Amino acid sequence: MDKLKIGFIGTGKKQKPSSKGFAMAYRHADGYALLDQCEMVTCADIVAENGKAFAESYGIRRTYLDYHEMLEKEDLDMVSICVWPHLHAQMTIDCAEAGVRAIHCEKPMASNWADSKRMAQVCEDRGVQLTFNHQRRFARPFRKAKELLLAGEIGELTRLEGEVGNIYDGGTHFIDMFGFFNFESPGEWVIGQADCRNENRAFGAIVENFGVFYWQYQNGVHALMVSGQGNLGIGAASRLIGTDGIIEVGVRGGAALRIKRPGSWEEIDCEGEGIHGAHFIGRALEDTIEALLAGREPELSARRALNTTEIIFAAYESCRRRIRIDLPLDDVSDNPLESLFNEGAYSAG
Ligand SMILES: NC(=O)c1ccc[n+]([C@@H]2O[C@H](COP(=O)([O-])OP(=O)(O)OC[C@H]3O[C@@H](n4cnc5c(N)ncnc54)[C@H](O)[C@@H]3O)[C@@H](O)[C@H]2O)c1
Question: pTM to 2 decimals?
Answer without folding.
Answer: 0.96
